[in-house]
Amino acid sequence: MPIYENRRNSENYVQLTSKQQEALASGQASFHTIAEAVLRKCVDGAGAVLRLDGWYGVDYPVISDAVKAELEKQGGCKVEQCSASCLFLPWEKIAEKKHPWITDEPAFGCVNVEETLGDYADAKAVAD
Question: If we measure between CA atoms, which residue out of 101, 25, 103, 106 comes closest to residue 67?
Fold first, then answer.
């Protein structure tokens, strides 16, 4: 994990095409924009899947509820919400698998080169 000490090594610039920049929305307007995109996929009874992914500190239930409310307001799609957290092993099992990679300094530890994210998934939950 890098140490971010100053602007020289802590700024992360993301290059976006002009088309991507035009598609950006923020604030309450973003929920309307997301709902419109989902509704375009819900034609003739077809379903659509919207996945939200990002930093763990984001309050995804708030975002999910806002998108659901917007979809219901605009009409057209049945909305089911679920968290992907149920697709992973129980926390105790994850802690057990991580243990060999944690050192006396838990913020750093060692790189686990033997496993991938899939190794922490609950195969039964994923299959269901």
Answer: 25
